[in-house]
Amino acid sequence: MDSKTQARYRARAKVIKAMAHPSRLLIIDQLIEGEQCVFELTEMIGADKSTVSKHLSVLREAGIVQDEKRGLQVYYSLRVPCITNFFSCVEAVLKSNTEAQGAIG
Amino acid sequence: MDSKTQARYRARAKVIKAMAHPSRLLIIDQLIEGEQCVFELTEMIGADKSTVSKHLSVLREAGIVQDEKRGLQVYYSLRVPCITNFFSCVEAVLKSNTEAQGAIG
DNA sequence: TCAGTTGTTGGCTATAATGCCAATTAGCAA
DNA sequence: TTGCTAATTGGCATTATAGCCAACAACTGA
Fold first, then answer.
1. In chain A, what residues touch B93 (CB-CB under 8 Å)?
2. Distance CA B95, CA B105 (A)
C-alpha cells in the first residue's frame, strides 16, 4: 500500500473519528435542523461550555461544521448537508477540505 | 434529554468509533470485496498480527464484522453490506445487534 | 469606561486507545 | 506425540481523548 493510499485512509479516519462521540453526534443531529449557537448547544448537551466548545473545534477541524460569529454568539452549521450517506459524505467533506485548502494555498 | 436518547447516541458513537481508524477502514474496504482471513489482512496492513487481531475484535464487538473459523484460519466478513450509507448503516448495525441480543437473551 | 455575556484557550487529571512482544490456544500433519 | 502455522490474549509503555476549572478575549449596552 502506497503512502497516498495511507494518507487517504488517515483523512477518512479523521472525519469519522470527529463524529465518534455521543455529544458530537448530538450536535450534528441538531445542526441538521439548522444553525445553532454554542450557548444553545451547551444547554442541550449539559456539559461545561468549554467542553462543548472543544467538541465543536473537533468538528470544525474535520470540516464537518463551520462557524460564523454574529454579535456575542458564534453560530455553527453543517458544512456538508449529507449525513445520511456515509462514505459519500466522508468523501464530500474531504473534497470540500481539499477545495478549501486550494483556496487558501 | 432522557437516558434512552443518551444510550442511543452512545450506541451510535460506538459503531462509528469502531470505524474511526485507518487500519479498520482499510479492513472494511477489503471486506467489501469478500471475506478474508486474519493472515491476509495482516499482510495487507503491515502491522503485527496481534494488532490486526485487536482491530478485528473492535469491529466484531461493534457488530460490523463477523468471524468464522475454518481450519487454521479465521475468516472475517461484513455483517452489514451497506457501507455507502452512513446513519442508515449505523442503524442497521444497531438493529442487527438488537436482534442478535434478542436471539441470545 | 465598566459590567455583563458568550466563547475560546490553557492547564490539569483521569481515562481510553494503540501497538508492540511474549505467551497461549487451536488446529493440521507427520 | 511432536512440530508447525494461525490467531488470540495478557502485559506493558506510549500517546490521544475527555472534561472540568480558571483565565482570557470579544462583543454589547448602560
1. none
2. 15
Percent of residues in chain B assigned helix, strand, coil, to nearest 5? 65, 15, 20
Question: Which residue places its CA closest to the C1' of nucleotide D17?
Answer: A21
Which residues are CB-contacts of A85 (< 8 A; sequence separation ≥ 6)?
A92, B84, B85, B86
Distance from CA of A87 to the nearest CA of B (A): 5
Q: What is the pLDDT of residues B22-79, one digit of tens each?
A: 999 999 989 988 999 999 999 999 999 999 999 999 999 888 889 999 999 999 998 8
Q: CATH number of the domain that A57 lies in?
A: 1.10.10.10
Q: Provide the number of structural domains found in chain B.
A: 1
Asked if B88 and A84 come within 8 Å (Cβ–Cβ), the reply is: yes
Which range marks the domain in which residue A12 is found?
Answer: 3-104
How confident is the model at residue B8, as a pLDDT? 78
Mean pLDDT of the region A14-42: 93
CA of B72 to C1' of D24 (A): 61
Look over chain A and give the mean of its residue pLDDT values, rounded to a whole number. Answer: 81
